[in-house]
Amino acid sequence: MRRLCAILAILCPACGLFAAYDMRNQPTAALDGWKIEAEAARPDAVCRSGETVEFRVRLLKDGRPAPGRKLVWSIHGDYARGAKGECVSAAEPVTLRFTPRGPGFTWLKVDCPLEARRKIYARAGVMTDPETVRPGFAEPADFDAFWEEQKRAVRAGAIAPREVPLEVEEPYRGRFELFDVTVATPGTKPVRAYLTRPAGEPGRKFPAMVTWHAAGVRSAMPQYRFAGMGLLVLDVNAHGIGNGGSHEEYVRLYRTTMKDYRFEGADDREKIYFNGMYRRLIRALDYLKARPDWDGRTLIVYGGSQGGAQALAAAGLDPAVTAVIAHEPAMCDHGAPLAGRTAGWPRFIRMKGGKPADPAVARAVAYYDSAFFAARIRRAECLVLTGFIDTTCVPSSVYAAFNSIPSASKRIVNFPQAIHGSYPEFDRVTDEFLAGLLRPGK
Fold this sequence. Notes:
nine-stranded mixed sheet; alpha+beta; Rossmann fold; single chain; Immunoglobulin-like; 9 helices
């Protein structure tokens, strides 16, 4: 079996923070010395329509093959739902085969029942004809007009930021400056962010980056990693709430008043929760561009999951953005169910009788589809990452957005063994991309 040495960070359902796991060992796949492994036979996990796909499955006990145990498997995803069966583990990997019916994402789940009603399970996924995936429904005819009106509303008020200096902790003290930033945003809560910049260089102008948050509720954070590359970095709190609170405070918000924020107002393009979030991203970009220490040339947007959605939206809404980095972006291909596929998080559209159960939701969320923002990224350099066992922001939805980008300078990197989260491999690819953007003379 292939080995990928990486630490996986998965989303904590309580608060949206990250916990560490090893990519080789899916967190559900090991217990009391038992371990189940699953992978696509093709190293790249990419196939063509009509091809037979092979998965290999192996059960181990204390690191050694464990033959003779019942394994229960099922197929999920686009065009492949419903297939299931049983097999028996063997000394060599067991091969399971199926044929996808069309382009998209298909994944295998293999369970191994253990004693006392316990079980372990693993997943493996493939993409079929990924370059052919397109959004499941058409963009609204007035998409641009709607967002031009949102920008006009946001820009009706003058940018009057409040910047409060914060103490920089060791070992970063003396190397960076940190500010808690508040910028009033007409029609919604203010931008709340942390600004991190290299210290001790008065008058210098910096390339800039805005970093956006994944789903959950948390404070903005210092961004010493990126500021250490010579960047002026604005880390934006997704919800416009206060920064610097306790972990318990943010957990309480996520479990109570903000538990289902993603579905608030989803049947109205003006009242949907993400209208405020996206108004704030417009304001955050305008604030950063107005700073005298921005170099006026380089503006990078970065995020993962919900943050990846914001990054794509920012790049689509503001032509000043020169580069976008989106890790497993959310909000992609809301219309996928109309094409028989699975949408990315948060899956607004439910189907009934082959049609959206709530047509008003389907109409409203189309204005917030990452694929349609991506279609407006004409010049920015783009890096998109996707995982082939990510069942939250499924890779077919990510490809629907990536394939919509018209910029000639775009790249997508597939991680066949990645579930939803953040990996050192993601950081490595990102750092290489940034090094190319920031190299002298570019």
